């Protein structure tokens, strides 16, 4: 009898342990998955920006903290996405992201200097399209127009950080003329896609307010890129990266709002 009691206790402990392990990965659905996968695009650019800034301004602790936090989040997101069963048909695409990430992360863990920063800059431009392809495949699986809004608004988060990445890469002289050209291309795309989102009939008043706030911050940041602000280089870096971070936060809220819309539509369709 005592053996049976011990066995029952062991089984119960095992079940509790399994339940706790499963709860380590929060439940999410397709809208959340597109949102999380879209953040990987942004993080590839944010990590690179923070890495370069550690070389440009090695005494600024914020750059190291942003870098380490973003590296951890990318890893955590990969684990979440790998556990998302509805995306099993496109798991091979996620594996490509994982492969690109391994090479990228290996360089990112090296001390920041111009050589390693130039290599990370290059790798960020191959990790990004791999992550973007995965988002597009998830959008196709969702089979609803609201999924496109989650994707595009999530891409705006990425653009805010790629704008800043290209700016600091150009400033440090590690990307040649490409960084300057890509910077202005990204600014134009950000503005164009912002106009597209503002025209969506699915927008709530809260979404529209956040999009309009982002448009104001974009206008302010553009003045810094065009040299209209008279300030030191250190101050200009602070203004540009600070303003693009605000753009990132605004678009992160909007992407979450669009993801919630998709989730609600999906539930109503069941």
Automatic annotation (TrEMBL):
InterPro entries in alphabetical order: NarX-like_N, NarX-like_N_sf
Domain NarX-like N-terminal span(s) in chain numbering: 30-108, 145-209
Membrane topology: Multi-pass membrane protein
Secretion signal, residue range per the UniProt entry: 1-18
Protein origin, superkingdom: Bacteria
Alphabetically ordered keywords of this record: Membrane, Signal, Transmembrane, Transmembrane helix
Localisation: Membrane
Major subcellular site: membrane
Entry annotated with the keyword Signal: yes
Protein name stated in the entry: Pilus assembly protein PilP
Organism of derivation: Microbulbifer harenosus
Lineage, opening ranks: Bacteria, Pseudomonadati, Pseudomonadota, Gammaproteobacteria, Cellvibrionales
């Amino acid at each position: 009898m005592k053996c049976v009691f011990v066995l029952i206790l062991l089984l119960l402990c095992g079940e509790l342990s399994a339940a706790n392990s499963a709860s380590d990965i929060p439940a999410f659905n397709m809208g959340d998955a597109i949102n999380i996968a879209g953040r990987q695009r942004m993080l590839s650019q944010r990590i690179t920006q923070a890495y370069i800034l550690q070389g440009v301004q090695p005494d600024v602790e914020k750059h190291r903290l942003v870098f380490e936090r973003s590296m951890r989040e990318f890893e955590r997101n990969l684990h979440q996405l790998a556990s998302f069963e509805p995306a099993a048909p496109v798991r091979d695409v996620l594996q490509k992201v994982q492969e690109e990430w391994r090479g990228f992360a290996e360089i990112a863990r090296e001390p920041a200097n111009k050589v390693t920063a130039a290599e990370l800059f290059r790798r960020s431009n191959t990790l990004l399209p791999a992550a973007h392809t995965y988002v597009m495949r998830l959008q196709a699986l969702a089979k609803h127009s609201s999924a496109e809004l989650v994707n595009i608004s999530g891409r705006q988060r990425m653009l805010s950080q790629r704008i800043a990445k290209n700016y600091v890469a150009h400033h440090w002289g590690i990307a040649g003329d490409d960084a300057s050209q890509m910077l202005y291309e990204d600014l134009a795309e950000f503005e164009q896609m912002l106009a597209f989102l503002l025209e969506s009939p699915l927008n709530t008043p809260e979404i529209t307010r956040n999009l309009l706030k982002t448009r104001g911050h974009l206008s302010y940041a553009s003045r810094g890129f065009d040299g209209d602000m008279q300030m030191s280089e250190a101050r200009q870096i602070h203004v540009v990266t600070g303003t693009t971070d605000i753009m990132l936060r605004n678009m992160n809220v909007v992407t979450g709002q669009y993801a919630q819309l998709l989730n609600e539509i999906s539930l109503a369709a069941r």
